[in-house]
């Protein structure tokens, strides 16, 4: 439904813009500004279907031109058939555009310029050719040069508009990144303060451990019985102090994350861009050769970007850890698509995989298949439990996992559209 609303909106704007037009030949053939808006919308709204939108735009242009003609002249008998060829122009423009745009980079404005010139010139030639069969319009061969010049001018206007918007957007993004950096510095300074309490607690914990072990030895050897009570009291006092200061740390971090991170939302494509660059650096830092692939469906805007970033980052890092350093043709794939009213994410790798017993406990806190047998170090195993918490508790979604030992692992995540998206 949302796509149809956008398509009708674009078609209506194109129809309004088409009222700015000039006649180049002695007929109802007119060159309008409508196609300029049509291509600009196609460039920025990738989800629009060019052919459907083109045909609808042509119909809207036709209806609006008839209405204007009727209000001006009192009847439309002489132009009903002639004006219908507007639909033909937009239909063929969108068909040519759709056929050519898939042959190159849709985001390359210079490439799109050539597509626009060909589409504009081709659609105009077809319209003029049809007009010669129903009225006294000159043949397309006589006005071909003029039509080609018009196609270049209109396409150049679109090229200029798109480049202007592109650089304006870059300036806005630069300003937004600077503001984010300032907030990050402020956030870091606050977290540094909380680190002080954590470090102080580490000293307390060391003291408690030492006193506890000393008390254990005295009890075990039945020595210095009169000091047991004081030592136990000191241990209890230190534990209480640790608990109190730990509460301060938790409260402080909660205030930071709840207040300072109340940032405006982000487009999903921007989240993916940040993740891709960050994860590539992580992979390079681990000296692994892994092909990281993102395949995203429809773009959307969300204020849950911190949750989404954390969820995907944990799953990608989990996949990176599951791939041995010397593995050849290693690959991690992050795919996204819109499945009716839900966003569907698949994060898969071709790493070592997980056996059936491991799959039963994979979301349990502390469970990990990553053990360094040289150092004895075990991964904390919190990443996947955090993912499950974010997906199911914070985003009202579902997460599942499939894996074949030796062939890799895939995580499947469904999140309701109305939870993740915002206008």
TrEMBL record:
GO terms for biological process: phosphorelay signal transduction system. Pfam families: HATPase_c. PROSITE patterns: HIS_KIN (PS50109). Residues 186-419 form the Histidine kinase domain. It comes from the Bacteria. Gene3D superfamilies: Histidine kinase-like ATPase, C-terminal domain. One of its GO terms (molecular function) is protein histidine kinase activity. SUPFAM superfamilies: ATPase domain of HSP90 chaperone/DNA topoisomerase II/histidine kinase. Its EC number is 2.7.13.3. Keywords: ATP-binding, Kinase, Membrane, Nucleotide-binding, Transferase, Transmembrane, Transmembrane helix, Two-component regulatory system. InterPro entries: HATPase_C_sf (IPR036890), HATPase_dom (IPR003594), His_kinase_dom (IPR005467), Sig_transdc_His_kin-like_C (IPR004358). It catalyses: ATP + protein L-histidine = ADP + protein N-phospho-L-histidine. The chain crosses the membrane at residues 29-46, 53-72, 78-100, 112-134, 146-165. PANTHER family: C4-DICARBOXYLATE TRANSPORT SENSOR PROTEIN DCTB (PTHR43065:SF46), SENSOR HISTIDINE KINASE (PTHR43065). This is histidine kinase. It comes from Tissierella praeacuta DSM 18095.
């Amino acid at each position: 439904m949302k796509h149809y609303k956008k398509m009708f909106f674009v078609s209506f704007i194109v129809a309004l813009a088409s009222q700015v037009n000039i006649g180049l030949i002695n007929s109802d053939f007119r060159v309008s500004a409508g196609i300029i808006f049509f291509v600009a919308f196609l460039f920025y709204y990738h989800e629009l279907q060019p052919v459907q939108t083109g045909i609808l735009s042509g119909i809207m242009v036709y209806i609006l031109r008839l209405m204007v003609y009727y209000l001006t002249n009192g009847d439309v008998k002489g132009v009903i058939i002639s004006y219908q060829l507007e639909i033909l122009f937009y239909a063929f423009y969108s068909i040519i555009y759709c056929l050519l745009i898939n042959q190159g980079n849709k985001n390359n404005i210079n490439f799109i310029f050539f597509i626009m010139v060909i589409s504009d010139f081709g659609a105009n030639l077809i319209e003029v050719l049809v007009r010669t069969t129903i009225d006294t319009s000159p043949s397309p061969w006589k006005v071909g040069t003029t039509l080609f010049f018009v196609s270049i001018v209109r396409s150049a206007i679109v090229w200029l508009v798109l480049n202007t918007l592109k650089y304006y957007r870059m300036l806005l993004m630069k300003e937004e990144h600077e503001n984010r950096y300032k907030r990050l510095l402020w956030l870091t300074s606050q977290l540094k303060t909380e680190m002080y309490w954590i470090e102080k607690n580490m000293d307390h914990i060391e003291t408690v451990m030492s006193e506890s072990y000393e008390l254990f030895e005295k009890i075990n050897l039945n020595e210095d019985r009169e000091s047991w009570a004081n030592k136990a009291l000191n241990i209890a006092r230190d534990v209480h102090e640790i608990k109190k200061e730990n509460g301060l740390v938790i409260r402080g971090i909660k205030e930071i994350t709840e207040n300072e991170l109340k940032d405006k939302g982000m487009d999903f494509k921007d989240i993916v861009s940040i993740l891709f660059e960050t994860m590539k650096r992580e992979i390079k830092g681990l000296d692994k050769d892994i092909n990281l692939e993102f395949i995203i469906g429809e773009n959307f805007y969300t204020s849950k970007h911190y949750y989404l970033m954390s969820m995907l980052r944990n799953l990608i890092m989990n996949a990176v850890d599951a791939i041995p350093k010397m593995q050849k043709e290693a690959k991690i794939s992050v795919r996204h698509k819109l499945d009716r009213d839900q966003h569907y994410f698949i994060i898969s790798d071709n790493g070592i995989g997980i056996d059936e017993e491991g799959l039963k406990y994979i979301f349990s806190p502390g469970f990990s298949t990553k053990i360094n047998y040289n150092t004895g170090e075990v991964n904390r195993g919190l990443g996947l439990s955090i993912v499950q918490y974010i997906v199911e508790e914070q985003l009202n979604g579902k997460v599942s996992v499939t894996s074949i030992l030796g062939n890799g692992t895939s995580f499947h995540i469904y999140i309701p559209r109305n939870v993740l998206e915002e206008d």
